[in-house]
Design brief:
With 375 residues, the chain is an alpha/beta fold. It folds into two domains: 101 residues, Oxidized Rhodanese, domain 1 (3-Layer(aba) Sandwich), CATH 3.40.250.10; 268 residues, Metallo-beta-lactamase, Chain A, CATH 3.60.15.10. Helix content is 27%, strand content 25%. A seven-stranded mixed β-sheet has the order 6-7-8-9-10-11-12. A six-stranded mixed β-sheet has the order 13-14-15-16-18-19. Strands 1-5-4-2-3 form a five-stranded parallel β-sheet. Strand 15 and strand 16 form a beta hairpin.
């Protein structure tokens, strides 16, 4: 029987389209419990590779006949070996090419909508990590927001659209993933924008993201207006794009809110977080489409694969926006913190330009789910 590779892109599209797929994850139990492929129509079982070395006869009984079976491991090698054993027993099977590392790195571009005077905005969904980044296009120019370290994806996408990246912006100093912002700016000659309160003593030059500034993309003037919105970091800055989209960074998500502790200052920053969510954001138009920098669970992903809801919807449905007591809010935010992201201190240092890591080290630093939110 056959053993066929399945790319992370192919699997991502199946998950987004809610096609039935069955995963045999052969990593150890701890790794599987911490982070796995999820989706509305995804079934999975976890049997470590070493438990299958003596034979796969027992696991054959657990594999369905009515959906594709994909073997998953960390990097690929173990899944190929298990897939070969299953094929020898008469099962057609796939394996995830590149393993969970490839799953973590795949970016799926999704068109969010058109802007006034002919522009477009795209969301890049990093489905295996929950990261979201954005590209605003207009009249041959593009602005890129919260780029991941997979820089080639953005550059190739811009080339395919016939636009030049003119501005690269980070909403804040990221702690759960490595920013590709500076690298892309260096490769394209674009301006790199960063909130100055998140960039003290950085060894590189940047443009200061400050409230009231307007960044223009294209001759049709798609304005990207920064709004100072601290709480996740002291410098966190949101963007209103074309008076229609609110790029909220890691302050507000679809079903959760940002955590304030990744610089060790939860008690200091929780007040800023509440001020941003309960004053600054509540004074904005409820018609704005909120486009966050992360999502937590697949239920937050729309039918078309995008992640976004109107601010009016979130003001009604997001529990983090409906805690009347400031004391209760403070208790929930500082007393309900999830585990911290993998290697987050090193990721902060890397994004500040204070340390360097090779590509394989960077991949290892990012392994695991994002943990920037509080539910």
């Amino acid at each position: 029987m056959s053993v066929t590779p399945m790319t992370a892109k192919q699997l991502a599209q199946k998950v987004i389209r809610k096609e039935p797929v069955f995963l045999l994850d052969v990593r150890n139990h701890d790794s599987f419990a911490d982070w796995k492929v999820e989706g509305d129509n995804v079934q999975s079982i976890n049997i470590p590779y070493f438990d299958l070395l003596d034979g796969v006869e027992d696991v054959m009984k657990e594999l369905p006949d009515d959906r594709e079976v994909v073997v998953v491991c960390a990097k690929e090698g173990s899944s190929i070996m298990v897939a070969d054993l299953l094929a020898e027993e008469g099962k057609d099977v796939f394996y995830l090419q590149g393993g969970m590392k490839a799953w973590s790195e795949h970016l799926e571009p999704v068109k969010i909508g058109d802007t006034t005077q002919g522009g477009e905005i795209y969301q890049f969904v990093r489905i295996g990590k929950g990261c979201l980044s954005y590209m605003v296009l207009s009249n041959g120019e593009a602005s890129l927001i919260d780029a991941t370290r997979m820089t080639d994806v953005y550059i190739e996408f811009a080339q395919s659209k016939g636009v030049q990246i003119k501005h690269v912006l980070d909403t804040h100093l990221h702690a759960d993933h490595i920013s590709g912002g500076r690298k892309i700016a260096q490769q394209t000659g674009a301006s790199y924008w960063l909130p100055p309160k998140d960039a003290e003593d950085v060894p590189y030059s940047y443009e200061a993201l400050e409230e009231g500034k307007e960044i223009t993309t294209g001759s049709t003037t798609i304005r990207i207006q920064p709004i100072y919105s601290p709480g996740h970091t002291i410098g966190s800055t949101s963007f209103i794009v074309d008076d229609a989209y609110l790029l909220s960074g890691d302050i507000l998500f679809i079903d959760s809110i940002g955590r304030p502790d990744l610089a060790g200052l939860a008690e200091d920053w929780v007040g800023d977080l509440r001020e941003t969510l309960y004053s600054r954001y509540k004074n904005l138009s409820e018609d704005l489409m909120v486009l966050p920098a992360h999502f937590m669970i697949m239920e937050e992903v729309n039918e078309d694969g995008s992640v976004g809801r109107t601010l009016g919807h979130l003001l009604k449905e997001n529990h983090g926006l409906n805690i009347e007591s400031e004391a209760e809010f403070r208790k929930k935010v500082t007393g309900n913190l999830p585990p911290q992201p993998n290697a987050y201190q090193e990721i902060r240092e890397l994004n500040l330009g204070k340390i360097t890591k090779n590509e394989e080290e960077q991949r290892e630093m990012e392994i695991g789910p994002n943990r920037c939110a509080i539910r």
